[in-house]
Amino acid sequence: MQGVLLIVYMLFVSGLIAVVGDRVGYRIGKKRLTWFNLRPRHTAVLVAVITGVSISGLTLATLLLLNRSLSEALFSYTSQIAQAEQELRALNREKALLQTENAALRAERDSLKVDLDLFRNQQSAAQTRLSEVRDQLTVALQERQEVEAKLAAVNEQLANVQPSLDQANAELNEVKAEVESARQQIAMLEEQKRALQLDRDQLERSLDVVQVALSNLEEQKTQLEQEIEQFNRLAVSLRRGELAILAGEVLATGVVNTPAGAEPSSTQQQFEQILAQAEQQALALGSQPAPPLDNAIMIRREDAEQALEKLKETGSWAVRVVSLTNRLKGEPVPVIVQIYPNQQIFPKGSVLASGVIQPGLDESQIQQQLLGLLNQANQRSQEEGLLSNPITGTVGEFSQVKFLEIVQQLRQSTTPLDVKLVTDTDIYTAGPLRVSFLMEETAAQQTDSTPRRAELP
After folding, report:
1. Architecture of domain 131-241
2. What is the pLDDT of residues 71-130, one digit of tens each?
3. CB-based contacts of 354, cutoff 8 Å, min separation 6
């Protein structure tokens, strides 16, 4: 109750003093009095100021007289200010710590924002690339449909005009060129796929904090791989279907010997035996004769007559029957006859390649060195004129089991061995190349002059 009365009293006194000050200022201003040589206007302002100061002083004196606690607080403010300053310093220290933590949090937030922006940019680029690849796939599929339509037309022409084989072969070569173009497009798409996979790997390394977006990219990648795989399967099946014979595949190889004064019938019989071998090989691979023809292989009459005339010349001839084009199962295969002089390339016992195998090597290292010797022999044989397989580029075969046995023998050796690849028989142009490994100790370690031979059929 005392506080309420004090407030009412202060309000009353302040209002009374304000009224008195206003009236005094008004009268002074009206009378245009001057104090201290001031202008009347400035004198009125001074009176108003004195009145305001009187109000504040009277109010403060009244409060100090009527409220002892206020007077104590007013005259003991120094200690209170010191305590407040200590509290303020403590608060400032806490504020500094909070500001440091806030700066760290802001830096981390900025880093996360940068990572998020980078991810969004990369995601946008990846989506753009995916859209481009899909468009290219659509164009490639349309081109594949056009190629299929052309293939259908070519097949119809082959069915109706079988005797005109030369014209059909020319058309097939055009289709092959188109298929090769489609393969190049597939290779280009594969390169784009690998580029996308590299982009995806880079995104996986930088997007640890955004796994949800990564899962979306994985789904898009999987879908793209499925589309590319489907397109690859369609392109492979384009015109090829189920291949039985590849272009350039050797169906038969033989030797025709025509001594001086030999009967033409003998040469023709040897040539027909080689053609019969090619016929059997074509049938075994899935080729079938096309009615009304009786043979699975087709050779032009002019080519057969020219080959026979060449074989009637005196000498020994290596003859190969080679397919002209890729053929599906159930189709006849056109062939050509290749004739080479059958000359001796290497006499029996010729060293085609050699090297020293050190002890202590593991199995893979020994195999690598032995395969290097075989490759040297293969390359040298081809350079000397030995006929090689047009598809594989090899001039012979060897037993894998026997090869592994030789590797085991070399692993068990405790001394360096000089390994030579020598011919088992006289090698002619027609082949095949038959060699064996000859192993003996090197000159520095040799105590037994008997070499060890390992044959490779």
Report:
1. Orthogonal Bundle (1.10)
2. 666 666 677 777 878 888 888 888 889 888 888 888 888 888 888 888 888 888 888 888
3. 373, 418, 419, 420, 421
